[in-house]
């Protein structure tokens, strides 16, 4: 083969070398804590700089299974190196703590994942000031940067309300001011979005979601540029941050089918979202792949596809009992948090409780929908039954 393999080929082979695995296709699961050394010289060598180690040291510093997952994701994101963590939130918090100190100021998109917001609010206890900014901000973010600004945290599309950020505009400004940019790429994955190529310094994933893809693992990952990796790796070590062997194995397994699964999620979600736009009782569908969505132009420029997660804003009027009746009528959409698995999910969402004034202008009840792999017509029928129940309760 000449040249670099395509993404689909790399999903299948990244992080795996059967020649070093006794011919087996998949790397083995290394459940390990203690590592034994042949002699004192080897033991002494194990105490070298963790960034320069080329040998197993102790399970908390990583196993061959974990390194295979980190190597694969690094390749797919186009980064320098990666760190696996025990959860997506752990990836976010570890990455943020790698770059801030008392007296620093950070800028965080107002549309971020709610647990990220709660963590950033808690940074005040460490002397770090968090300022939230409108996710529609572009190069004008320069007006918010101070001499003490160390980090800008992006999420595109944003959690729950799905605003698409102008990542190249923000990262170019931050680079001019020596401000690190961190972005959550859980929604799009490297299949559809490659933020490091758009100027970001650090990419975080809740690998629990699409990367693993089967709702059976809790896992996070941080993919770094060469400049940011030392700080992230050192922070992960200081925090005792590591991922379990079985979870990284499941993450590695999920990568093998990620391209195929994400294309199917795109097909399912766009089909369902387009249909929902035409249904009675629906005020808006929040999905950037739909023409007319406020983020559609940026999505077309920076993304090559869309995930299965989107927002459904109902028409104003129905109260909680009516919305609860809609949800109670569904048979295929499970009431459950998380997303990214093969199953369809739906949960109520209320961004008003934690957003800046004016950045969320919805007027009706909001639902977060994840389109899984059930037959599309069956999913439409399920939601149609729920919407009919909503309408009946609203008229009563």
From TrEMBL:
Region (Disordered): 1-25
EC number assigned by the record: 4.4.1.2
Annotated GO biological process: L-cysteine catabolic process to pyruvate; transsulfuration
Superkingdom of origin organism: Bacteria
InterPro entries assigned to the protein according to its UniProt record, in alphabetical order: Cys/Met-Metab_PyrdxlP-dep_enz, Cys_b_lyase_bac, PyrdxlP-dep_Trfase, PyrdxlP-dep_Trfase_major, PyrdxlP-dep_Trfase_small
Keyword Lyase: yes
Catalysed transformations (reactions): L-methionine + H2O = methanethiol + 2-oxobutanoate + NH4(+); L,L-cystathionine + H2O = L-homocysteine + pyruvate + NH4(+); L-homocysteine + H2O = 2-oxobutanoate + hydrogen sulfide + NH4(+) + H(+)
Root EC class: lyase
Family from the record: Belongs to the trans-sulfuration enzymes family.
Protein name from the UniProt record: homocysteine desulfhydrase
Highest classification ranks of the organism: Bacteria, Bacillati, Actinomycetota, Actinomycetes, Kitasatosporales
